[in-house]
Specification:
It contains 11 helices and 9 strands. The strands form 3 sheets. The chain has a 4-stranded antiparallel β-sheet. Strands 3-4-5 form a 3-stranded antiparallel β-sheet. It has a two-stranded antiparallel sheet with strand order 1-2. It has 359 residues and is of the alpha+beta class.
Length: 359
């Protein structure tokens, strides 16, 4: 399939509604093919694979993934050193030095010492500012407590600060890359539960903090839109399942597609199954999370809260304690009358349960 620079540019700027840096977008696209070849020649090889997201399967094949990524980066670094390059570890840039309008050096900090490296150009590629809580709070449109980052936490905005001192354009500082949804524990970021993770990746009924359905849940098959929808909803949402459905998926598999299946299958060169479940451990998980506490009442319904993250979302298996009683009632009404949302995505099959019309 032929895919021209013009077609790629038009698709990207349409997808971002022309809110991206147009000149930069075009420059990156123009240099992309030669950059891939340049890296390949220097030991960082890639392979062309199908896109890892379901909704993009009919798009032109342009998705490249690393082959033997970590060893490849080692080869790239060794080649850099063999050609006279110097790699300084544990060294932070603190200031770009100018003279008569030209770059003449960069001031750095290493092992409690400051010194200047003479140079005529500086490439700033330190990964943004997701590791800087103050900057995140300043530019984030939601409560920072609802954000969990999968980005590089050592990226604290030092490069942006140096560039701002030179008068750089920082108008796009508030652009966050929201990407898909997942399940994490705020207390233990290494925690993972495969059952809950899989259920998060399916188009069940989602409601916001007011108990309102806010999006066509098949958005979970487009990771960028999924992330943005959750961000717009205030940074979190609730996934609702009724007991009949929980009983069914605990015993039966579904002819549905986990939105992350293609990602993992593509990376391992495996065949897609387009099946999920059965989730035989689901009731055990919920019994542990919803057991009756002394003086309390056992929760009858299963309500999951999904908090916004940058490239990730949080799920909590409990009602939000800050919700009003009227909101709780509204959610319970949703549970009583709605079983599941019908997705328009062709690989998703509706459960053999009686559907209810969504208004």
């Amino acid at each position: 399939m032929q895919y021209s620079l013009k077609q790629a540019y038009q698709e990207l700027v349409s997808y971002t509604h022309y809110r991206s840096n147009l000149n930069l977008t075009k420059a990156i696209l123009k240099e992309s093919a030669s950059t891939i070849d340049w890296l390949d020649e220097r030991g960082l090889k890639t392979e062309l694979v199908n896109n890892t997201q379901e909704v993009h399967q009919q798009h032109p094949k342009v998705y490249h993934q690393y082959i033997d990524k970590f060893a490849a980066f080692d080869r790239l670094i060794h080649r850099f050193k063999d050609h006279g390059g110097q790699l300084l570890l544990k060294t932070a840039g603190t200031k770009i030095i100018q003279k008569d309008g030209n770059i003449v050096g960069v001031q750095v900090h290493q092992d409690k010492h400051d010194f200047v490296i003479d140079c005529s150009a500086v490439v700033v590629a330190d990964g943004g500012f997701i590791g800087n809580p103050d900057l995140v709070k300043e530019y984030l449109a939601i409560n920072p407590d609802n954000l969990y980052s999968m980005g590089e936490r050592k990226a604290t905005g030092d490069g942006i600060k140096m560039l701002a001192e030179l008068g750089a354009d920082t108008r796009h500082m508030g652009v966050f890359e929201n990407h898909a949804a997942s399940v994490i524990s705020p207390q233990n970021h290494k925690w993972h539960n495969g059952t809950i993770f899989s259920l998060t990746n399916l188009p069940f009924l989602w409601v916001d903090s007011a108990g309102n359905r806010f999006v066509d849940e098949s958005v979970c098959y487009d990771f960028a839109l999924w992330g943005n929808a959750t961000y717009t909803a205030g940074g979190y949402y609730y996934i609702i399942l009724d007991q009949q459905f929980v009983d069914y998926i605990s015993a039966q598999s579904l002819d549905w597609t986990d939105s992350f299946e293609r990602t993992f299958k593509s990376l391992d060169h495996q065949v897609m199954t387009h099946k999920v479940g059965r989730f035989h451990k689901l009731m055990l998980i919920w019994k542990k999370r919803f057991k009756k506490k002394p003086g309390g009442v056992r929760n009858r319904y299963k309500i999951w809260r999904s908090n916004c993250t940058c490239r990730n979302w949080i799920l909590k298996t409990r009602l939000n304690s800050t919700m009003s009683m009227s909101t709780k009632k509204k959610i319970l009404i949703f549970i009583n009358h709605l079983i599941i949302c019908v997705s328009r995505f062709e690989r998703v099959r509706f459960m053999p349960l009686k559907p209810v019309q969504l208004l």
